[in-house]
Write a structure and sequence with these properties.
The protein has 14 helices and 21 strands. The chain has helices spanning about 20-35, 60-70, 75-80, 90-95, 95-100, 120-130, 175, 185-195, 255-260, 280-290, 305-315, 320-330, 350-365, 390-415, and strands at about 10-15, 40, 50-55, 85-90, 110, 130-135, 155-160, 160, 180, 200-205, 220-225, 225-230, 270-275, 295-300, 335-345, 370-375, 420-430, 435-440, 445-450, 460-465, 470-475.
């Protein structure tokens, strides 16, 4: 990504990102807006005049890190007139005015749908010292990539929808990101074509629930200062079908959109996340199996292996349904790479519930697991549930789960020994001198020795060893074609 502009305001901005792929995409978008508006980007906070945090509210740990960083900046702000501190992203929506109360030296709070205003808000804050809160939802705003300012020139994230209507009892996403809104398919395909023409070879389609792209939506409740409010205004209705409309333009069912993206000339790999098990259709499985450009990897969060806890979580499926979807995927794709999210210690989780999670792990044998202790989120029903699991019990269960998950991940890597992986090079390997790394089609990290490789090169690597999640090998062929 470019770090300077021919004509600058003299203000340097340091942007620190917390969270998921959507946060990374949005940080790149904000950086591009700042560069176009004649700001420059600082590589370190110490060199900056403006410090922005792009935040995540999914778990308490991420929020605690942001509040800690804000507290550390009070003296930095006072040391020089005109300095600006801002919070962007999910915390800007969920906390709004509370952020200003906890950090009075904060200048700007800007939600995900208001990023176009960031450059001007910085100028006003620097000039007048007046703070602003801009956190309203905008159903037609989707950040797009600037092909000339990608952090990695060969791959890009593309937001195809935002928000969530599932209302899982533990999740704050419907309140920080709003209702489900699908981006018009024409707009998505136009961006993919622009990126392909600029040399991008891999795209990842993003949404809080990509499987529900283009499906009918339902009214959701507003989120104000940590409290659930009344239902928001009714969504537009299709006169012919009577269904709610999710977009301000034409959409396709997600499998069809995925197929069309996979047919764009120059795009050799297509990925997507995150998938909700309830909306994973047979047609989507067929597209994954049939389209050579669609990678056979999927992140399918299950959250728990107990029907009783899944019901309390509001997940709207049971273990049998989930396992049925996994079997459908694996019967269609022999070499599927599957990952999941798991929460331990949800309120009321008994030992037998946790054992159900271990049993599910044993049956699915994931290639990777992202596991977390229950984190109560402001304003969600789960935050008010009784029967909290003691912290020490949560710690013990997390350790037991992780041990089993790591064993499965190691076995999955062991099974790759001797195979030849097609690797899209990302760059030099930070922790292995004289080596490069990249991703296989399954999305595994592959490390290999060599010199002169560039991001975007495609090589064939024979796997010779592994360290839990990473594969190591020797290049057999370079200058391959996707």
């Amino acid at each position: 990504m470019e770090t300077s502009s021919p004509q600058t305001t003299g203000q340097k901005v340091f942007l620190e990102t917390f969270g998921c792929q959507s946060n990374a995409l949005e940080s790149g978008h904000v950086a591009s807006l700042l560069l176009k508006d004649h700001f420059s980007l600082a590589p370190r906070a110490e060199e900056a005049d403006v410090i922005l945090f792009n935040t995540c509210s999914i778990r308490q740990h991420a929020e605690d890190k942001v509040f800690s960083r804000l507290g550390q900046l009070a003296d930095w702000k006072r040391d020089k007139e005109g300095r600006v501190i801002g919070v962007l992203g999910c915390m800007a929506t969920s906390y709004k005015d509370q952020l200003m109360e906890r950090a009075p030296h904060l200048d700007m709070v800007v939600g995900p749908d208001q990023y176009l205003k960031v450059p001007e808000v910085i100028r006003q804050a620097s000039r007048t010292g007046q703070s602003q809160v801009l956190a309203d939802f905008d159903p037609v705003y989707f950040p797009e990539n600037d092909p000339n300012r990608l952090s990695q020139p060969h791959k890009a994230f593309i937001e195809i929808m935002k928000g969530c209507d599932k209302f899982c009892t533990f999740c704050v996403v419907p309140f920080t990101r709003g209702r489900e809104v699908s981006r018009p398919a024409e707009s998505v395909l136009e961006e993919v074509n622009r990126l392909a023409q600029a040399g991008v070879k891999e795209v990842m389609l993003l949404g809080q629930n990509v499987n529900s792209y283009g499906l009918p939506s339902f009214p959701v409740r507003k989120f104000n200062n940590g409290q659930l409010g009344e239902p928001s205004s009714p969504i537009p209705m299709d006169k012919e079908t009577g269904l709610g409309l999710k977009s301000r333009g034409g959409t396709l069912p997600f499998p069809q959109l995925l197929r069309e993206v996979g047919q764009v000339p120059g795009i050799g790999r297509v990925r997507f996340m995150t998938s909700h098990p309830l909306d994973l259709s047979d047609e989507l499985v067929e597209v994954m199996a049939e389209m050579p450009t669609v990678c056979q990897s999927i992140h399918l969060p299950v959250q728990c292996g107990s029907d009783r806890v899944l019901k309390r979580m509001g997940r709207k499926y049971d273990v049998a349904h989930y396992l049925g979807r996994v079997r459908k995927l694996r019967s269609a794709m022999r070499d599927l790479f599957i990952t999941t999210d798991l929460i331990v210690g949800f309120p009321g989780e008994a030992e037998e519930d946790f054992q159900g999670t271990l049993d599910l792990l044993e049956e699915v044998r994931y290639d990777a697991v992202y596991s977390f202790k229950f984190s109560p989120r402001l304003g969600t029903p789960a935050a008010r549930m009784l029967n909290r699991v003691p912290e020490e019990v949560q710690d013990q269960r997390l350790a037991r789960l992780n041990e089993k998950a790591w064993n499965h991940a190691s076995e999955s890597c062991q099974a790759r020994l001797g195979l030849v992986e097609e690797v899209l090079v990302d760059g030099p390997a930070d922790k292995t001198p004289g080596a490069f790394y990249g991703k296989s089609r399954q999305n595994r990290t592959v490390v290999f020795p060599g010199t002169g490789y560039r991001a975007g090169d495609l090589v064939k690597v024979k796997v010779e060893s592994h360290k839990v999640a990473n594969l190591y090998g020797t290049v057999l062929k370079t200058n391959c074609e996707l």
